[in-house]
Amino acid sequence: MQLVARDLVGCTLHHRGVGGRIVETESYHQDEPACHAYVGRTERTQTLFGPPGRAYVYRSYGIHALLNAVAEDEGIGAAVLIRALEPFDGIDEMRERRRVERITELCSGPGKLTEALAIGLELGGSSLCGGPVQIHPRSSTERPATVVTGERIGITKAAALPWRFCDAESACISRPWPAALRPAQRARRAATPV
Question: Angle formed by the axes of helices 110-117 and 91-98, to 10°?
Answer without folding.
Answer: 110
